[in-house]
């Protein structure tokens, strides 16, 4: 059989089946309304079908059909013109909260990798991992025998230069002014040599440049080190700096001093508060993101440098009507809610702005206090009579009072 013949035959069978269903199934009209078919179309199809079916049926069948229809109407809430029992909630004002979420990396507010100021062999280590140290505290010492000797020699040279200078000043009449001047220059040079020797000796001590906490010490006594060898890392983690990147659209929204919240993987469920410390001066051209830096208080010393953080910020936005999530329905034209006015239900079209766990923000012709149907929605019709119930059954249906 040709395809077009098969298609026409299938279409005839479908139409015949639909007509039979409309003619012989009680309550077909209500089922069509529940399926979302417009009332105007249902009213044209169903009455004609019922009249045709009743005209050709015996009196007993007509009586049985009317009884079935009435029973169906009772199950559907007592008929189209009876009041439907529903539950409602009032519309409230909600604010669109534009929330920013990003992942960042924490760092100590001050961190220093300590290296020696001179090369040599480590003779003494005075700290261990986890120690708290103060600025200026000696962390380790290098061998210093050569520097001690050099300082002694410089000290002797200073004393000799001072004696010679004093002698020349006492016998100015016997020596030339140039000799006196040379002795003074020699004294000053000797003193400078002594200062240099003392500085070289002091540099054999490795000093903490900041207050902080000692990390793992990677060197041992007897190691030969240079000015590039890391001795230890000091972290001042009284505050933690978190660097993170945000989309370009937030570039004109974020500012220094704005509050932030951060959560660490190591402290699940615990929220740490902070503020924006710095905002970068340019957008990254490759990722189209902006770099921000937040400062988080860590006086309790619960956080560590290098931790990953989930950072969030809230930006208050425009106000919209807020309705219960259960009240929003859908049909072929989009989303809507049922508004109750003077004990009548009316369909109000809405446009969803933001979904939240407890409510939905919508753009619609609604104001504070408007009653919106939240339960009993399956029996509500446009312009239908409704009455508001006080109790709701456990299955989600409105309970009879």
UniProtKB/TrEMBL annotation:
Per the similarity annotation, which family is this?
A: Belongs to the membrane fusion protein (MFP) (TC 8.A.1) family.
Gene3D superfamilies listed in its UniProt record: 2.40.30.170, 2.40.420.20, 2.40.50.100, Helix hairpin bin
Q: Which InterPro entries match?
A: Beta-barrel_RND_2, MdtA-like_BSH, MdtA-like_C, RND_pump_MFP
What region holds the Multidrug resistance protein MdtA-like barrel-sandwich hybrid domain?
Answer: 110-229
What PANTHER family does the annotation carry? BLL4320 PROTEIN, MULTIDRUG RESISTANCE PROTEIN MDTA
Q: What is this protein called?
A: Efflux RND transporter periplasmic adaptor subunit
Q: Where is the CusB-like beta-barrel domain?
A: 243-314
Location in the cell: Cell envelope
- Keyword flag ATP-binding: no
Q: Which parts of the chain span the membrane according to its record? A: 6-25
Q: Where is the composition biased (Low complexity)?
A: 55-75
């Amino acid at each position: 059989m040709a395809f077009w013949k098969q298609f026409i035959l299938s279409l005839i069978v479908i139409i015949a089946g639909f007509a039979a269903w409309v003619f012989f199934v009680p309550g077909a009209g209500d089922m069509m309304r529940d399926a979302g078919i417009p009332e105007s179309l249902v009213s044209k199809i169903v009455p004609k079908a019922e009249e045709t079916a009743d005209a050709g049926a015996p009196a007993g069948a007509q009586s049985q059909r009317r009884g079935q229809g009435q029973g169906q109407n009772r199950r559907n809430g007592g008929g189209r013109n009876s009041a439907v029992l529903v539950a409602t909630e009032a519309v409230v004002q909600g604010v669109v909260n534009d929330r920013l979420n990003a992942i960042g990396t924490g760092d100590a507010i001050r961190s220093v990798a300590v290296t020696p100021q001179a090369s040599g062999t480590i003779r003494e280590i005075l700290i261990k991992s986890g120690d708290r140290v103060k600025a200026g505290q000696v962390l380790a010492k290098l061998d210093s025998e050569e520097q001690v000797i050099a300082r002694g020699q410089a000290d002797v040279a200073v004393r000799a230069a001072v004696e010679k200078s004093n002698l020349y000043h006492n016998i100015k009449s016997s020596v030339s002014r140039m000799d006196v001047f040379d002795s003074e220059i020699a004294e000053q040079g000797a003193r400078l040599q002594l200062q240099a020797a003392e500085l070289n000796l002091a540099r054999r001590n490795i000093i903490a440049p900041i207050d902080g906490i000692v990390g793992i010490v990677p060197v041992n006594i007897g190691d030969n080190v240079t000015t590039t060898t890391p001795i230890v890392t000091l972290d001042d983690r009284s505050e933690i700096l978190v660097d993170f990147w945000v989309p370009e659209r937030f570039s004109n929204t974020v500012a220094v001093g704005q509050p932030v919240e951060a959560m660490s993987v190591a402290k699940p469920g615990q929220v740490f508060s902070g503020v924006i410390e710095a905002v970068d001066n340019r957008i990254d051209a490759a990722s189209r993101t902006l770099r921000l830096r937040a400062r988080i208080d860590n006086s309790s010393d619960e956080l560590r440098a290098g931790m990953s953080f989930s950072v969030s910020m809230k930006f208050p936005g425009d106000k919209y009507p807020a309705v219960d999530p259960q009240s929003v329905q859908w049909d072929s034209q989009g989303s809507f809610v049922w508004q109750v006015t003077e004990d009548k239900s009316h369909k109000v079209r809405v446009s969803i702005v933001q979904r939240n766990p407890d409510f939905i923000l919508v753009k619609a012709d609604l104001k504070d206090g408007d009653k919106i149907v939240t339960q009993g929605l399956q029996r509500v019709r446009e312009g239908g009579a409704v009455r508001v119930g006080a109790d709701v059954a456990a299955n989600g249906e409105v309970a009879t009072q």
